[in-house]
Amino acid sequence: MISPFLKLWFNVIRNSISTLKRQSYLKIAFVLLCSIIFLVVEFLISYRAFLFIRDFPGVGSIVSERLLFLFYFALFLMLIFSNAIIAYATLFRSKDTELLFTYPINETNIFRYKFLEGIVLSSWAFLMLLVPFMMSFGMANNADVRLYPFLILLFIPFLILASSIGSGFTLLLARIMPRKRLKGITIFIGISAVFFIYLAMKKIRVEEPSQTLEIFILNKILPDFRMSYSPFLPSYWMVKGILSSSRGLFQASFFYFLLLLSSALFFTEILMRFASRSYLNAWVEMRSRTKEKLFILHKGIIEKLRPIFGIFGRDICGLVTKD
Please, which residues have CB within 8 angstroms of residue 121's CB and are 6 or more apart in sequence? Predict the structure, then answer.
């Protein structure tokens, strides 16, 4: 069962390397340089921001922690939405998925492979952005150096949990709804998410002249972060594990890691059981629907020009119109 997947991955890597070799060395160097500059600038801005917040008298640590809760809450939502979109592309629109269905492989194994592929595709960009951000947080707050490897350990089940929810949501919609309606619902969810963020930001009022900066932060901003500060959220467990490991409390951090891991395994098991019953039917239904009507009688410029080809006979006229 593993052989077709390994062969497919080998072909993908080989084609990617061959495509990269055909690129200009100047182009590759320019992209790498821009990426490094971007990561360095992100680190410097985040580091200065955490230092600035840390120096708030009396409330610096509270504000830093609440910002971390809000950041991982937003990250968890973005991972779910990103995995939902990527799952639609990899599970139903990918050419290699169609190739895998020609092999004598169980559809559940195909789903597992595409699920892991979706995790990789959706995680690498977030992970690249997360590393300089968390390094700046740790350095600004004098965190324990063991925070950084433990952060990767926490991020793995956090990512799998978000991927399970996003992929399951896509599979459910693909199973019960037509493709056009599915696309509309996806757009509606995206617009709703943007509107939700807009309402959350609108609640933050401007600073009043009679207030100090510290009072303004405590009275105005922090109450609006309550939506991300709930012990039932995976983002809460993630941040609690990070804060515990940054202070050297690795027993508490390991407890939150186990919470994330058990939840990720639970949702993944539910997703695989649901996929074993519905993925093949959903894929067949999605592939059986055409994107659009290929030919509509008496419409379009070809049909208007049809009489011109009539001089060659009915058969040739029909062949020319079809092509």
Answer: 86, 90
- Tokens standing for 320? 């020319």
- Find the largest Cα–Cα distance for the chain: 90
**Alpha-carbon distance values, 135 to 60, 68, 70, 123, 153 (Å):** 18, 13, 18, 18, 15
The 8-class DSSP code of residue 24 comes to -
**Could you tell me if 260 and 96 are in contact, meaning their C-beta atoms sit under 8 angstroms apart?**
no
CB contact at 8 A, 111 and 279? yes
Contact assessment for residue 16 and residue 120, using Cβ atoms and an 8 Å cutoff: no
Distance CA 131, CA 287 (A): 39
Beta carbons within 8 Å of 101's beta carbon, 6+ residues apart: 107, 110, 283
How big is the chain by its Cα radius of gyration, in Å?
26
- CA-to-CA separations, 34 to 29, 30, 43, 133, in angstroms, rounded: 9, 6, 14, 17
Q: How far apart are CA 23 and CA 1, in angstroms?
A: 35
User: pLDDT for 3-20, tens place per residue?
Assistant: 666 676 677 677 777 777
Categorize the per-residue pLDDT at 123 as very low, low, confident or very high, splitting at 50, 70 and 90: confident
* Structural contact between residues 237 and 259, judged by C-beta atoms closer than 8 angstroms: yes
The string of pLDDT tens digits covering residues 23-55 is 777 777 887 888 889 888 888 988 888 888 777
pLDDT for residue 171 is more than 90: no
Q: Angle at which helices 107-140 and 60-88 pack, to 10 degrees?
A: 160
Distances (CA, A) of 225 to 65, 77, 138, 194: 11, 15, 22, 17
- Asked if 150 and 245 touch (Cβ cutoff 8 Å), the reply is yes
Residue 219: its H or E element: none
Alpha-carbon gap, residue 289 to 179, rounded angstroms: 8
